[in-house]
Amino acid sequence: MEWKQAQTIYVEAKEQSQGDEDALTLWQQLIEDGVFYARLRTDWKLADIQQRMAMDETRTQAHDAFIASCDILARYLRTLDRDIGWRQDLGVDRKEIGDFACYIHALLGISAR
Length: 113
Known about the structure:
The chain has 113 residues and is an all-alpha fold. The protein has one domain (3-111). 85% of the residues lie in helices and 0% in strands. The longest helix is centred in the middle third of the chain and has 31 residues, at 49-79. The protein is globular.
């Protein structure tokens, strides 16, 4: 996934979530799940082999939770007849979706300065 694509998906999903309290709650959950997974992904990269083995299940569960959050938000937005092209653009490849979580983490970190 390229930086520009991640930014576009992020902005589109955020915009489609505006104006509906439940959609905003689901958007917030997507963000929290993405940041949590991105932290684990970074920790895994820095860990030794034994630490990686110990964290593998948690990392996989966090990845699954982030993917589920993306899917849940998209399904809900579809019930509101909102554009979910961002979810289609995100695709189904686990690595790409994981990359998107890392981009979210980066976008939030950069915007917080």
